[in-house]
Design a protein that fits this description.
single chain; alpha/beta; Aspartate Aminotransferase, domain 2; Aspartate Aminotransferase, domain 1; four-stranded mixed sheet; four-stranded antiparallel sheet; 8 strands
Amino acid sequence: MSGMGMNSMLYVPCERDTGKMRIDKLEEMVKREIEAGNKPFYVNSTAGTTVIGSYDDFNAVADVCQKYDLWFHIDASWGGYLAFADKYKDRGLFEGAERADSLNINPHKGLGVPIQCSMLLVNNKPDLLRKTFMSGAEYLFLDTEFSKYDLADKTMQCGRRPDGLKLWLSLKKHGKEGCVRIANEAMDKAVYLAEQVRKQPDKFVLVHEAQATNVGFWYVPPAFRGKEYTDKQKVGVHKLIFNRMNELGTVIIQHQPVPEFDIPNFFRVTLKGEKTRLSDMDFFLEEIDRLGQDIDDTMV
C-alpha cells in the first residue's frame, strides 16, 4: 500500500496458510494513515506471488479501495497467464479482478514469450496514460495520418524497444487456443504433482495447498522418517540436494524459505509455458529421492 508521508510504502501482512493479503489489516492500515494526516492512494495486490503462488481476494481488496477512494492495482506479472486456464475457472483465481483500476502481466513468464515482454492494462480510463506521461515534444511527435499508432507519449520511457511485437507474433502462432492450452496444461501438471506428493507422505510433505502452479514441498530422507525433522535439518537437506542437482545436471529445482512465516527451505516447482510433461513430475520426485537417500544428521 502506498501513501503520502514519511513511509511512502507500507506492507500489508498476509495469511500464513494461503499467502493472501489480510483485508482486516489493509483497512486498519488505511485508517491509521488517514488519522495520521497522510493520504493513502494506491493498493498493490497480487495474482500469483513469487514463492507461494498466492492470489489475493480481489473483491475484498476492491471493497476497501472503493470505500477509501484508492487506486486498485493487480500485479499479475507471474500468475496473470492463468486467466486463460478455462478448465480451472471454478477456482475463482480472478474473481473481482474486473474491479481493478489497472493490472500488469508479463507474458515472458507464464506464456513463454521471449524476455522481455510486459503489458499494463488500465480499466475504463480512456487516454489516462497519455495525459499522465505526455511530453508533446513537437520534434518527436508529428501530426500525420499514422500518429494514432505512435504509443510513445503514453509511456514513461517515451522511446523503447518494440517488445509488444513478440507478443503479437506469439499470438499469431498460437492464437487464443494456444494460450488456453498452455495455461490448462500448466495447471494439470501442478495438480498432478501435488497429488503425487500427497501419495508419498513418508517421503514428501506439502508446504501449502497450491492455489495455482506453484507447488512447494519438503523432502524427508530415510534417516529422518518417523522421527523429529527439525527446521535446521530441512534447510541443510534441501541445500545439499540442490547442490547435487547442480553437479549432475539432471534437473534443477529451486529451494527457498518463507522467513516471514518461519517456514524453512523447501523445493518450489513453478509450472508454466514450457516443455515438461506429466511424466516429468514423477521424475522430479524420483530424482530428489535418489539424491537424498544417504543424507543423515551428520551431513546437515
